[in-house]
Structures are given as C-alpha cells and as structure tokens.
Amino acid sequence: MFPRKLASAAAAAARAGSRGGGLLALLANQCRFVTGLRVRRAQQIAQLYGRLYSDSARRVLLGRLWRRLRGRAGHASAVMAALAGVFVWEEERIQEEELQRSIDEMRRLEEMSTVFQSSGVDRHPPEPNPQTEGSEDSGAKAQLWEMVMEKKHFKLWRRPITGTHLYQYRVFGTYTDVTPRQFFNVQLDTEYRKKWDALVIKLEVIERDVVSGSEVLHWVTHFPYPMYSRDYVYVRRYSVDQENNLMVLVSRAVEHPSVPESPEFVRVRSYESQMVIRPHKSFDEGNLPCLHSKPAVLLQL
C-alpha cells in the first residue's frame, strides 16, 4: 500500500507543479509582451521626433523629459537616455561654481599650509561643508586631513571618505623644470597621453558641450594581473583665468549612452578630480604651485 500511496502523491505533485509552471510561464510571456510593446512604442516615438524635429530641438525635448523623470523611482531617466542615445548636457555639464570651489580650496590650502608649517602640526582641521553644515550628521562627516608626506616642493595629505574604506588625497607641489602652460597642456592632450603612458588602452573624447566647453571622455587603463583593467567615463572642464593667473581642470564620473559597461573592464563609477595651477609669474615661466585633489579608487580583483 505504501508504494502505491507514494506513487499517487508524486503524480498529484507533478500535476500541481505542471499547472503552477504553466501559470508562471503565462505570466512571464505576458510581461515580455508588455515590455516589448513599450520598447517598440518608445522607438517609434523617437523615430517620429527624429523626422519632425531638428537635432537641437530633440535635445531640448529630451532634456525636459529627463528632468521630469529624474525624481521618480527606478531608472526611467536612464532608460530614456539609453533609448534616445542622447547625453543631456543640461544635467551633467560642469558648472562655473565647481571650478570656483576648486580655486577656493587651493587658496585655503595655501593659507593652512603656511600656518601649519610654522606650527609644526601635521593635521589640518576639517573644512566647512556648505551642503552638510547645520545637519545632524555634519560632525560625523567632518574629517581631518592627515599629512602623509612632506618635502620641500611636495606635500601629500589624505582623509577618509565617510562610509567607505577609501581615502581622498590632496597633492600640493611646485615644479621648476616645466612651464605652467606646458604642464597644463599635457593634462589635456589625450593623444600625447597615449604616447607616454604605456598603461592606456583607450582614451578618447566622446562628446563636447558647445555651451560650457565641457567634454565627456572614455578612458580604459591597464591594471597588473590578476586585477581587471579599469575604464572611466567622465566629464571634464577646464578654464584659463588670465586675470587671476590661474588654470583649473575639474573632472567627475558620469554615465553616457554611447559607452555601456563592458564585461572586459571594471567600471569606476566613483571618480572625481580637481587640479588648480597658479604660476608664480606667468603661464610661460617655470616654477608653479599645483594643487591636485582626488579620491582613491578601490582596487577590485
């Protein structure tokens, strides 16, 4: 009797599983149908706008849609950008305020360096952050800059990035064998970077913004075995201020629809860098102080 009951129970379970599997398959097919229909509709709308509007008008329209969708849950804005194949500069370009903040940081660092060099202290106090000042956790986010290396023409500080095991670094140095203009041009020249940097796998400008002069770059760099090579997609903007005798270069990571993530590389999504160059005399004479601030990048195997 026992084998017969067992066989009957197994048959009943199989029938139930078959019915459940059929229901799940039906739901899956329905979801695929709805998703495919929406994607086709989005493509048809994009083609229609492509015939009716110019390239600049399409960018304005997609920019408005992007701003409306940014505050909603999910990744609707990213999907819209990917389907349209357009990078929305209104949201991602580097603004004047970002350049000015980098200049202000260099001035504060110069002042603090003078004070702390005379006092012999190797830690800088936390700097005020307008975005967190007055909030409950502003004290937790304030970190000390710790002196890591100090030489005559070179200083290096670091401080922890809250919530991670990474550090943000600041470098303040003076060069005597190169002019400020030469040093600055080397930072901007992507073709020359490919010649002197053997670790570069790919480095090219993806798109430029005619309004601000910002540009999006895709940079792939080799990492030693057994680590995977890294790739960066970032927007950068530079400024040469003749009146105040300053050069500024600011970069930060972005997403671009024409550069999807590749399984061959590890995409670095948390990246930013600020560089400020102030010559002692002019842009074409040597001996320049330079501030470079950037967060460390996690090395993933």
From TrEMBL:
Subcellular location: Cytoplasm
Gene Ontology cellular component terms for the protein in this record: cytosol
Main location class: cytoplasm
Domain START residue range list: 140-301
Region (Disordered): 116-139
PROSITE patterns named among the record's database cross-references: START (PS50848)
Pfam families on file: START
Any Gene Ontology biological process: lipid transport
Entry's Gene Ontology molecular function annotations: lipid binding
Swiss-Prot/TrEMBL keywords: Acetylation, Cytoplasm, Lipid transport, Lipid-binding, Phosphoprotein, Transport
Assembly and interaction partners: Interacts with ACOT13/THEM2.
Protein name: Phosphatidylcholine transfer protein
Species whose genome carries this gene: Hipposideros armiger
Gene: STARD7
